[in-house]
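ok trying again, last paste got cut off:
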Amino acid sequence: MTGSIITEILLPLALAFIMFGMGLSLTRFDFLRLWQTPAPIVTGFVGQIIALPLLALGICLAMGLSTPMAIGLMILAACPGGTTSNVVSHLAKANLALSVSLTAISSIVCVLTAPFVIQFAVGYFANGAPIDVSLTSISLGLLVITLLPIVFGMLVRSYYREWAIKVEVYFRRFAVVFLLLMITGVIIQEHAIIVDAFNEVFIACLLLNFGAMLIGVVSAKLFSLTHKDGLTLAIEIGLQNSTMAMLICISLLQMPSYAVVAGVYSLTMYLGAGLLIAYASYVNKQHIANHNSAST
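nice, full thing came through this time. structure:
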């Protein structure tokens, strides 16, 4: 009984709380940028919604991942970028406005796209043992715990702007603490699976993380976007909302074993994020040095 209360009520409520906090940081101008500067947003959107699940599928097939690990990786790839990507974009001095816009748009659209990716993954990898969950139930679940709280948060921000700006930081902190608790819970509950499959899961997560960042960089080059936008796309496509992935696995699908990938990814993605921040810092220093030498 306690377990069902946690998975069916408390965990979805916590994610809804986090999504509400994301809504408090958004304004309608974040969406208007789609029309003002469409190229980087469309490029990032296609990379996140289409290229990332295809990359995950390629990794699953190439590595011959076990059913829980393969489905877990596909679910992770179906999720949007989380608030972590916005923080990393800020630290890397990337295009924060673009990062926020992509996070917002992908979080809304994933309500429609993620269920299809999840249903495909379950049908393809769970040979003869499909999960008793419908496309409609996944869509409704994501609608209630992600889209509606984001919209409500934006409405609150529009009427109580100063309060929203003041408290939004606390929602971010809650998101970090909640993610750590989720990771701990998954490790404790699925300890045996993690020990048996850690090597393959760790490598698969690294490949997804670095492969996704590469997609962002290459896409920016192909469409002649600025270095700053390319860095932002690498961050936004490369860092997924692992909290949402774990919630989908545990609460919507009732399959905690699928959440192992998201738990491991939550740790490995900071390696990629750290390298991006270090690279961005190096490039910025080089630009400053070149500018100073040119001035003299």
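cool. The chain has twelve helices and no strands. The radius of gyration is 19 Å.
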